[in-house]
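Schema walkthrough. Field components (list of strings):
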Amino acid sequence: MDFGYDDRTRRLRAELTDFLVEHVYPAEPVHAAQVAAAGDPWSRPPVLAELSAQARRRGLWNLFLPDRRYGAGLTTLQYAPLAELTGRSPYLAPEALNCAAPDTGNMELLAEFGTAAQRERWLLPLLAGEIRSAFCMTEPDVASSDATTIATRIVRDGDGYVVTGRKWWSSGAMDPRCAVFVVMGKTDPDAERHRQQSMILVPRDTPGVTVRRGLTVFGYTDGPHGGHAEIDFTDVRVPAENLVGAEGAGFAIAQARLGPGRIHHCMRLIGMAERALELLCRRVAERVAFGRPLAEQGVVREWIAESRVRIEQARLLVLKTAWLMDTVGNKGAHTEIQAIKIVTPAMAEWVIDKAIQAHGGAGVSQDTPLAGLWVQARALRLADGPDEVHRASLARRELRRWATPG
Amino acid sequence: MDFGYDDRTRRLRAELTDFLVEHVYPAEPVHAAQVAAAGDPWSRPPVLAELSAQARRRGLWNLFLPDRRYGAGLTTLQYAPLAELTGRSPYLAPEALNCAAPDTGNMELLAEFGTAAQRERWLLPLLAGEIRSAFCMTEPDVASSDATTIATRIVRDGDGYVVTGRKWWSSGAMDPRCAVFVVMGKTDPDAERHRQQSMILVPRDTPGVTVRRGLTVFGYTDGPHGGHAEIDFTDVRVPAENLVGAEGAGFAIAQARLGPGRIHHCMRLIGMAERALELLCRRVAERVAFGRPLAEQGVVREWIAESRVRIEQARLLVLKTAWLMDTVGNKGAHTEIQAIKIVTPAMAEWVIDKAIQAHGGAGVSQDTPLAGLWVQARALRLADGPDEVHRASLARRELRRWATPG
Amino acid sequence: MDFGYDDRTRRLRAELTDFLVEHVYPAEPVHAAQVAAAGDPWSRPPVLAELSAQARRRGLWNLFLPDRRYGAGLTTLQYAPLAELTGRSPYLAPEALNCAAPDTGNMELLAEFGTAAQRERWLLPLLAGEIRSAFCMTEPDVASSDATTIATRIVRDGDGYVVTGRKWWSSGAMDPRCAVFVVMGKTDPDAERHRQQSMILVPRDTPGVTVRRGLTVFGYTDGPHGGHAEIDFTDVRVPAENLVGAEGAGFAIAQARLGPGRIHHCMRLIGMAERALELLCRRVAERVAFGRPLAEQGVVREWIAESRVRIEQARLLVLKTAWLMDTVGNKGAHTEIQAIKIVTPAMAEWVIDKAIQAHGGAGVSQDTPLAGLWVQARALRLADGPDEVHRASLARRELRRWATPG
Amino acid sequence: MDFGYDDRTRRLRAELTDFLVEHVYPAEPVHAAQVAAAGDPWSRPPVLAELSAQARRRGLWNLFLPDRRYGAGLTTLQYAPLAELTGRSPYLAPEALNCAAPDTGNMELLAEFGTAAQRERWLLPLLAGEIRSAFCMTEPDVASSDATTIATRIVRDGDGYVVTGRKWWSSGAMDPRCAVFVVMGKTDPDAERHRQQSMILVPRDTPGVTVRRGLTVFGYTDGPHGGHAEIDFTDVRVPAENLVGAEGAGFAIAQARLGPGRIHHCMRLIGMAERALELLCRRVAERVAFGRPLAEQGVVREWIAESRVRIEQARLLVLKTAWLMDTVGNKGAHTEIQAIKIVTPAMAEWVIDKAIQAHGGAGVSQDTPLAGLWVQARALRLADGPDEVHRASLARRELRRWATPG
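Field assembly_structure (string):
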């Protein structure tokens, strides 16, 4: 159980920190101004392309991908402290490094389960940052944390499949560069619970695909990052070779995709909480009310101390989980992945809330990153499974440990 | 200590409930569609004007104003259960009834402290819903909960005053119909702490007034409701008769304005929490996951029970406060006004958070009112004084009770 | 909904406050010393008898009993503020006034459901404070919040009944003066769920009754107040006329008994919280650490403010419940009785915890009443039904309100 | 940052687990019965001596002491998982292994700072478990978390020192076998803040020493473990060679003693929480209410999941702290020691509270270890410095990190 940062990690952390300080933080207000000035809510601010070029030049590119053929070949434990740093500027840094969801998960999926042709057509341009992709699993009419309720159908028809259904929260799909959708649906509703689902690639321009609208998250469209789309698939026909893996393998592939996806979110949340704590500390050191800096007020110190101890605990649990994923595999780390998914969003939400409170009106406005950070943390108490589902599942395992008479 | 609803209150509640069911709730999606379709973020959706006309026709107009000469002449205790109902649809109902902040506070201020000329010029069109107004107190560079830090200057110069300073969170000021700003600044920085400030009326079109930008609250501009403006006042000259009350009376007038303003917010928050609890209950009764309605899961029942008992307690405290304001005056109810300002936003935030969680992705999106309700509740933990300031002040009073040796 | 204190209540509050200040608070250290010096853990400290005599002389006697034939004839709303005051010294005041559980509930039960003979034999000496009684409902082997699980049998046999079973948490039964047990058991296990149980009077000295041991509550025996007994009933034969009410009426009688019992607990908890808040304020005003009184530290002020607003809210809910019990009856107030049972112990526990923390080591020791107060509040999150059962039940009712399609 | 258990740790954990299962858990009811039967509240139950003999025979003795000359020579990181196990039965296991506070801290102190004569006279019999010792730092009249307030005086007088003052919470001192007191007092009140204090050994039978009374913790005397004494030192004269270290070194020695003391407490608290979680899981699996095992109720599962994730996080932070103490020293681990002192007692308190709630009346009684566990956790939110002092100090450090302009 060794969580230490090795030399490569330390070197990459130093380089990434430089990049953040020199390029990313200064780009935050530029990004905000470009977004405000843009007529089209779904257009990509030019500063993002500049950051990407810069990151690529520095070798800070595709760090998330453990597969050496395509990516940096870092272990989960090596990547964790880097992903944490990108979380400090979550609207810019992950995308600048080509390490943003949902593309990361889709690239992993293609690298692991894709055919040579699928990798050629979709993985390579994704790795190059030329196109984007979306992951279409969640549906508006069912409790998507229960995969057996999925209503979208993928029906074999001659040499192809016909996809029919409605998806939402397909993040990134409002971006015109988003070229392909990874769609989960049922090929065999009568099979065993977790063998009913399959995964298929649907090019965006296939007839029958309608991107209906972007969803908001507490008022944000997340437009510059491709938003969150509601998409109709009406008799959408794709060739049979677009299937990812075998028929009935959809649930297993989704699970394989979700493990790393969840820990990446948690890593970045640690960074968000660190950023918020830094902003909180700076603010209360400067701001004076009733004759004293806020920093001298007992309740503010409670916030700071609590924030620090909550962050430290969550980070250790994330690092342990990363180490387990590297040593016993994602399946062996299942309980820990659930644990960090329960712990980290709520921790970050709490810390950011205190930072907002210390900033007064500025904290809820566009003048600090805090409101945006909070919304990301809050959304992650729901995304990739609500807390309650993870807690129920983790408890079931714990109960089994003691099921034998004592 | 009689909090019962009298006949007039009961009758008005029934009428207002009809109005909500028949007109307001059905108008919510219309309003959302009109906002989404509008090119101008600060334009007023036409449906609001229709609701206002309807409300006025039904006699549901200016209910907030206890002054019988101008308003409905209701006591605070009579108005409380009505304001609660308007909180169930806070983006539509208060404005439809001409009972929305900050106009309500400004109308009260003009009715109580304005000269005949000021009332003629500004109060009457406000009462008729023909213009809107803003209240300019908060400043970006100081801790505005400490009124002694206000930096805006109001300097006598011949037969006028010259106003210089920057304000922000001037709600409603982005609305082109917003015709007048009530500005607080210092006329005498050397006077006793609470005699330095004065209040003055600045017509929007006065030279030197620059409405710089709208602020966001989480991702919302609140544009259809006039937004929240940052405003520069650069050597803005207004006639001396624009002063409200005497020189040095600004702090006292602000306090008089804030008491009712705070309780109105709290009343509406009760209604927001009730709406959220209703949505929560309806959702969990319908939504099925893992083979059972969410309503049968223990943790959801804990949420519902806790929500109910928290709402009931907060409402009773608000009603008691209203009763005290009517019987011993705003000053005598000072502690209770602080108490409800501490209790109610946090209560509503908690209830709404649970309703969001039960709705999954729909809860954070534009498809339910919940995300917007949450943002309003969260902002009220800061607006009109952050919780921490109210708690510190309330504790000081409590400590004084026991200061004598025991 | 008028919660005001009427003249009689105000007068009794003044008299009771005098009694507390002049006699009860000074008796607290005397009581502690007598308990410490006693060889027998179940003996009654003499100071209690003196306080009782004094209280009776002042007319502060049997205030709890609404039945004018036997008690003070106060309404629930009139008694609430008095019971609150007795909660300020919960180990002395309720017993001094002959207003302590479980005797109060047993006296109510006998007054309402007892035969003339039962009242003559048991109620009169209880009213005179000459004997004590216990209520035997909870059993060690079943979840007693679910009355259908009760295992104790009451079997008709000739002109008598035979009682067999084990009870625990029979409060007061370790006191040698405790002369009679009110025992709940099943007369007909095959009847409808809530018609299986009956209630019967068992004199302590009946053959087959074995008081096995006293239970502790976080280390306390509550010995001077009769402790909490585990009792075996082995073929205990009593005459048929000892039945209270009809066969099968046990559940209904228990419910009738529990309503007032629960609100009395809640009233006293308000007083406990007030006492703790007073002690907290006095302590932090005096205690200096790191150069400043604790009272000047922000976090302590948060505690005080939060304590005050929580107490106020809980008290209003208790008063509303009392008012409902008086106007629509215990059944009509069922939801509110559950609400205060959920709210009040947790509120008091929170406040007392903060007072303990401010007292350091003294707070957990015998040198302040705080540790004892905390234990009472904590135990009431379980006694008379755990919070979770009340929450589940209250949520069920709330859900029913919205069950119709919306 | 390697927290893994090495071979020696793993072997000792296996042996200690055997010892717990075979001897300690079965001894818990025996211990309770012996305590209940003992006439003298301060007598030591015989079962403890048997457990000690057994532990010593198995080589499970003095594991806490890193000094190889006297103890097991384990690192902090090696000892942590063992101390955790002893926390599972905190009233028996630590003492059985001669690893119980305050003796452990006193033995460390003597090993590190004691003269050869002091070690000969006091350390050797302590290591052999023949005598016990107390640590006299806390005083009733001052805020003992602020060492500068200490009022006890240690005055040089010829070839000796005269000690005068009152101490309390001197744990273990009620045990007749407790032979020596390590007393902290001021030798030079005019010196620099942290050079005023000295530490001196006072044999219990020195004239002028009066052990006045035992303090209770909630309702527990902790009698079988030597209780918690209040002690008067009235002109107590001891030879000059009884001083531990130099004059003025008292504060530094106390700090050196507190670091390991605090982490030992935290390690054991992890074990207490684990024990409570096991009891909780077993209980809810067996107990049926309203037709279903408690384990199937959603809120119980939330408790279990939350308990598990809180325990895991706290353990990792404790292990990291242990690792830091071993690698950079107690001073370098100062922040982390504070962090675990803030986190661990509150975590354990929370978990144990839930276990109590699931057990109903049994949970607060003597029939489970839970009430006792809870009291230990609660007391540790105060002992060795209240949470608030640690939080304020940790926050100060965090603020310093960001003090430079950003």
